[in-house]
Amino acid sequence: MPLFQFTFQEQGQLEEEVVHLPFADRKAALAAAAESVWDNLTDRKFRSLDPIEFIVRVHDEEDTLVGTVAVRFQSTEE
Asked: What's the pTM value of the predicted model, to 2 decimals?
């Protein structure tokens, strides 16, 4: 199975976490990226942390960008 590089970044952080994971194809890798964003947001909500912005970029073995999953929240409080 081909390896895909996942680059995770939270708002306000310069550091990025990079993980290499095997997936059958690009579609499966992007689905996993979307699921990881959801899991991260759910975890932060459970810990009463404000989920503001998460970005996951997925690259294939040739370092070609497969896709980006980004979730941004705006506060509804005034």
From this structure: 0.76
Token reading at 70: 């980004």
Q: Strand, coil or helix: what is 5?
A: strand
When computed from its CA atoms, the radius of gyration of the chain, rounded to whole angstroms, is: 14
Name the strand (E) or helix (H) holding 32.
helix 26-46
Angle, CA 55 vertex, CA 5 and CA 14 arms, to 5°: 90
CA-closest candidate to residue 2, choices 27, 38, 39: 27
DSSP code string of 35-69: HHHHHHHHHHHHTT----EEEEEEE-TT--EEEEE
Q: Which residues contact 72 (CB under 8 A, 6 or more apart)?
A: 11, 52, 53
Tens of pLDDT, residue by residue over 3-47, are: 999 998 887 676 678 899 999 999 999 999 999 888 877 776 656
